[in-house]
Amino acid sequence: MTALIIGLTGGIACGKSTVAAMLSERGAFVVDADRIAREVVMPGEPALAEVAAVFGQAVIRDDGTLDRRKLGEIVFADPDKRRRLEAILHPAIRERMWTLIRQAKADEPGRMVVADIPLLYETGQEGLYDGVLVVYVPREMQIKRLLARNPELDEAQARERIDAQMDIERKKELADWVIDNSGSLESTKRQVEALWRRLSDMRKP
């Protein structure tokens, strides 16, 4: 059976993690860029030292860990600073992700690999994968879900964070496959199951 490497993306608060978990339950090996993004800024990591050098010690807590909230306030309000942060983090994240992907392929050549990457299109990575799956909800639902998930944000801040990404409608247009997560959990599960069957058929020799 041929291994597929799928890029999974969407917009903030669209439910990528929910869909990734459903794919994992069905046997996919999931590589989570958000989790790796936290790992590469742990104390002692080169990327954290570079972040501190660029943004100052104000973004480092007394215990040496990154103050993600303070850094977020800085970069989401200033596109140039956000690009500087991305230039530090994205290469480190991508290198670690592909180490895990290559290891998964070596360990279980026939197993499907799903790379969960919020900024997949924004960083031009779509060509690295056998196909791209977008988890979709309309923009206004994104805003509502983001505010519910992060009550410390006001609506202007929520819109700012969503605007920092490619428009979700454009991602939907570019996708090879789409999961519409704007309905019930059961609806999402049915779509994931149908997609899993299609992808499994593609992997047969």
Structural summary, described in words:
By secondary structure, this protein is an alpha/beta fold. The protein has a domain at 5-34 and 92-202: P-loop containing nucleotide triphosphate hydrolases (Rossmann fold). The protein has helices spanning 16-25, 33-39, 46-55, 68-75, 79-107, 139-149, 155-163, 168-174, 185-202, and strands at residues 5-10, 29-32, 113-116, 131-136, 177-180. The chain has a five-stranded parallel beta sheet with strand order 2-3-1-4-5, with helices on both faces. Helix 3 packs antiparallel against helix 5 (79-107) and helix 6 (139-149) crosses helix 7. The longest helix is centred in the middle third of the chain and has 29 residues, at 79-107. This is Dephospho-CoA kinase. Its EC number is 2.7.1.24. Belongs to the CoaE family.
CATH topology of one domain: Rossmann fold
What is the CATH class of one domain? Alpha Beta
Reported for the largest beta sheet, the result is: 5 strands, parallel
Query: SS-based structural class?
Result: alpha/beta
Features of the shown structure:
205 residues; alpha/beta; Rossmann fold; five-stranded parallel β-sheet; globular
Secondary structure topology:
Elements: E1 5-10, H1 16-25, E2 29-32, H2 33-39, H3 46-55, H4 68-75, H5 79-107, E3 113-116, E4 131-136, H6 139-149, H7 155-163, H8 168-174, E5 177-180, H9 185-202
Parallel strand pairs: 1-3, 1-4, 2-3, 4-5
